[in-house]
Amino acid sequence: MDREPVIPTGGFQHWAVAFIVCNFNVDVGPEIEILYPPDVPFTTADLSAICFNSFPEQQNTETAEDLAFNFAITNNSPDVKLSSPNAPHGSADTFYGTCVFRQEFDHSMKRGFNQRTLVMISHHNFPSFHSRLLQKMTETGVISDPVTLQAAYNQMFAWRPPKVGRHELPFLGSIVTLDIAPHRSFPLQGLPGPTPLISDSRSSIYAYEPIGSWDNIMHFMPCITDLYVLYEKLVLCESIIVVAKSPQLASEAVSSLLDLICPVPYAGVVKPYMTMQADFKSIGIDGGTPQSFIIGITNPFLLKRIIAAAEISHRMRPHILYLQEFGGPVPTRRHHSIHHKSSRNVLLDLPGGGIEVHTPSKRFLKSDPTVLSQVEAMLKLGDQTRELGPIIRRHFAELTAQFVAPINRYLATSNVVTPGGNNRYASFSIPEFLSSVSKYGTSVKFRGQGPIQRHRARDGLYESFCNSPNFYSWLEMKVSLETAASAGMLSGSATSSTTT
Questions:
Q1: Which residue spans adopt a coiled-coil conformation according to this UniProt entry (predicted)?
Q2: Domain assignment present for 431
Q3: Is residue 190 domain-resident?
């Protein structure tokens, strides 16, 4: 007789699934040390996946500071029912893991140190918020404390279910302010205005704001103009592999890259951190359905496996973004020769043969020279500035707004209204839209020596976008927000207490 799915009671299960402490046992590998609440019916396979995704694959005995990172795995535990009564309801089939990894010297251990990770598993993808909770739980210096886990659980149990708007949440002696936007692809979440008031303190967390900062990530980039290459690939829903030395840098880069194209939702698979033990079918490998993805990895063998699988299936090779400490200033543009003394065109030196990092070329968009100069000047200041992130985020948010403006204009003037008064966009015609762009123009600057080349680049980018899954994810978001707004569902986003 089939077991009935366990229906969670209380507020905690509307926000999260469980806290897990994973310990790296040198004899058997990763293992579960604490599961709280202890009766969550995870399958053995899911517990194993959580364990393996909770540790860095590259061992660095010099790691002294905590590493904070994220991962996402498929829910293969049929008795774990994921739900939340209000929008956002969370995912019904994905576990989002947020981790704090700590390595401490311990002379009683075989290796001279122990490694533990505190993981929060949720069906909501609120990485910055979850990271703040874990930081609060581990600030006393203990990462494996059953009393702290129980206290955190009890306070979250008293919270009302998440909904769009502001939440004031009591948590371990402080109030955490959380803002949940109507959609995760709202641009510039968590970024204060360009001229904030003195009283406008950065106290709240936005549920979907990116983790990490370009102030750090840019120092590992091959060059500044690669931002435009990556932006194009993300807008067109192409695949990207981020290779970094740590899971923290990898997951922060994935999060920050996806933020660049807001409010266009990336329609591919997102895996902020993957290991060799991951389910590769989820990204179309080993028998999975071919689909675009952006993933973060630290294992060079995994990179080689993914590239080989793409070549075997005759799929487009994913773009590789290799983040590393190259030494010297970050160049504005790539040098085409790998032998140039300041070149960051590296060959990934992998056992069994290297993987060449293809020098990408921007196919459509023209770089903004003013922004390039600003970023270059900020990078020269090193760690003395926190202005780099806002500059990059605002520039690409404006670029995306300019990009979708002609589509919004076309939809507003050509959509069909049904007898019931409901708008629908089934009559969208790419040739007619391109004619509209040709007639009314766009603020986006395209590459090309003359008008003909620039017009070809313009039509090429818009046509590729309208044929990509991202166009439909953006259109779905647009329709759902218009429907919610017309029903008055977005007007109740005022501050609300979430305690019982």
A1: none
A2: no
A3: no
